[in-house]
Amino acid sequence: MVLGWEMVKYNNPRSTHNLYYWENTADGANSEVDYITVKDLKILPIECKSGVSGKMKSLHLFMKNKKINDAIRCSLENFSIIESVDSQEPQITRRIQIIPLYAISNLYPTEEPTNIQP
Predict the structure, then answer these.
(1) What's the predicted TM-score (pTM) here?
(2) What is the pLDDT along the chain (118 residues), one digit of tens a residue?
(3) Cα angle 35, 37, 28; round to 5
């Protein structure tokens, strides 16, 4: 929940603030990705973990099914990148960027102030 508020807070104030998620609706499936956003005109899944562990099965499944190569994991871990090669398609490398929860503002570029006329 805190991650969602931070995403709204740092987002462009002139854009809509809808938060999206993904849930696998297949029978017997129990997988979801916490947030789906768009960055640089690409879909960017974001998974939030409260600690430093977790295998991110749902995130990997989403990336594979939707053919997405980049994702974000927000957690208590330090900045890092996890790269993995798809076992069925060895030419594809998927990257999950780890961003500490305190640094979620790094997802959003700072904008130069514009001259607003009264």
Answers:
(1) 0.79
(2) 677 777 777 676 776 667 888 998 887 778 899 989 888 888 999 999 877 777 788 999 999 999 999 999 998 899 999 998 888 888 889 999 999 988 887 776 655 555 555 5
(3) 40
Contact predicate 63/94, CB 8 Å: yes
DSSP calls for the chain? -HHHHHHHHHS-TTS----EEEE--STT---EEEEEEEETTEEEEEEE-SSS----HHHHHHHHHHT--EEEEEESSPSEEEEEE-SS-TT-EEEEEEEEGGGGGGGSPPPPPP----
d(C-alpha 83, C-alpha 67), whole Å:
15
Q: Does residue 107 come out as left (phi exceeding 0), alpha (psi in the -120 to 50 range) or beta?
A: alpha
Question: Could you tell me if 67 and 53 are in contact, meaning their C-beta atoms sit under 8 angstroms apart?
Answer: no
